[in-house]
Amino acid sequence: MAVGTYGASASSTGVGVRGVGFSTTGVNFGTSGTTSSPAGIGVIGENLQTTGEGFGVVGNSASSSGTGVFGNATSTTGSVFGVQGTTPSPDGVGVYGGATSSTGFATGVYGDSASTSGVGVVGHAVATTGSAFGVKGATDSSTGIGVYGIANSTTGLNFGVEGKAASPDAVGVSGVNTSTSGDSVAVGAATGSPGGIGVFAVAVAPSETTTDTRPVGVWGSTNASGGIGIGGTTDDGNAVAGANYSSEAPTAWFQNQIDDPSAPAFITGGTAFVGYCWIDTSGDLSCTGAITHGSTVDNGTRTVALYAMESPENWFEDAGSARLTHGSAVVQLEPVFAQTVNSGVEYHVFLTPKGNCKGLYVTNETASSFEVRELSGGRASIAFDYRIMARRKGYENVRLADLTKRVAKLAAVNKGMQRKPPQLPAKPSPAASEVPEPRRIPRGITPIPHLPQAYPVAEKINEPKHN
To answer: Is the pLDDT at 362 greater than 90, yes or no?
Structure first.
């Protein structure tokens, strides 16, 4: 193992190798190391002491825009690392960055990648047990942010923060707010784009279903059969709730884009009682229970149920009044009502005389009118009421439509939705005070009084850009 430069110190406060570039101009180096080996290391620092505040490598910068330690991997291929840190200690920190300034946009750890598929900062917890964290952020500030990610690119599918988990019981990204008061938020998301999405979640794979409804606060998508794009559960509350203040836009909008007039667009049901209501893509409402209206009685002290009239066929009804003149009258169907029904097929008229007569009957029914006459050639001139039942246009041949298969299918779908919610770890994110904080690096090193020779083969390193 050849060593270009090696330094050692037995002093409790000594430095094995130390380089200082104290020039106030130019891209100078305190210490620079290079290697041509594909498995080589340009600079390595080791502290073999198992106790005390030992450091393998220390970097300090007094500049207002300086960098204490900067690593640059210039290779365009391979799994290279700008800076890498490892530790075998159960309480150790592989790489630690601390910003001690109490003002400004100070950054503890900053990662930057210019690659179209690169990653600014990667954290990987390879332990298969325990509460290991790939990346963890904590803040003690009342307005601080534990982890903050920014994707500045205006094009491409980039991510501010991305989390992945391979375990069947794991959580890719978890947010927990332990506060029991205030307007606390576990996970917050926002988008300023008029066509943007605040939170986009995919189960298995994204759905091919599209929507013109933008922007979207939360979007859940899945292509799995029987899957749930967005689901909510609660033990004693509203699993899903929405509110708006628009005079035109609905609070909730449900749409099934399949080309099937009987496909359900909205379903309600329960598990304790076998009952369902659904609205299909044709706008038809079907319920296995009763359709009622709650009406207040007894000066508003009670509410009673009134039940909808139901029949085996789809009828529209209209009612009105007219008057016999010398035993007959022609009644015109109300023009708007006539447009909603098929009066070209048989319809029914029910009569109620409002005065003394021999009785009434209907004759000469046409698509636009019907005639009422008095029985036995009577010539009474009296008022009468009528009620018309006509078949709804488009439903003339529907009678006791068989819903057996639909109800069975809905029952199967409802059974598939009965699942336990995901169980988050009991303690997924310890408080900031529970994270062992490494001691700060001292800043009392004085410069060595001579100018080191410029390193001949060092390439200029671009300074990282901070947000």
So the answer is: yes
Structure-block tokens of residue 112 = 């930057």
Beta partners for residue 276, in sequence order: 269
β-strands 216-222, 197-203 pairing? parallel
Contact 425, 171 (CB under 8 A): yes
Close Cβ partners of 284 (under 8 Å, ≥ 6 residues apart): 262
d(CA 323, CA 382): 6
435, burial (CB in 10 Å: exposed 0-12, middle 13-18, buried 19+): middle
Identify the residue with better confidence: 58 or 6.
Answer: 58
**Alpha-carbon distance values, 77 to 80, 115, 118, 119, 302 (Å):** 8, 11, 12, 14, 77
Q: Which segments of 154-204 does DSSP mark as H helices, in order?
A: none
Residue closest to 282 by CA, chosen among 264, 301, 306, 309: 264
- What is the DSSP code (8-state) at residue 465? P
Q: What is the residue type of 93? A: V
CA-closest candidate to residue 220, choices 206, 234, 208, 210? 206
Please give the radius of gyration of the chain, using alpha carbons only, rounded to the nearest integer.
Answer: 39
Domain boundaries of the chain, sorted by first residue: 1-96+442-467, 189-230, 264-309+402-417, 315-391
The encoded tokens of residue 119 equal 């990653």
- What are the helix (H) ranges across 326-397? 335-340
Burial bucket for residue 278 (CB in 10 Å: 0-12, 13-18, 19+): buried
The pTM of the full predicted model, rounded to 2 decimals, is 0.52
Mean model confidence pLDDT for the chain = 76
For strand 383-391 and strand 348-353, is the pairing parallel, antiparallel, or unpaired? antiparallel
Per the CB < 8 A criterion, the answer to whether 227 and 220 are in contact is no
Cis peptide before 215 (omega within 30 of 0): yes
Query: Does residue 417 carry a pLDDT above 70?
Result: no
CB under 8 Å to 156, separation ≥6 — which residues? 116
For the residues of 15-47, what is the DSSP string, one character each?
A: -SS------SSSS--SS-----STT--S-----
Lowest mean pLDDT among 195-199, 221-225, 234-238, 374-378: 195-199
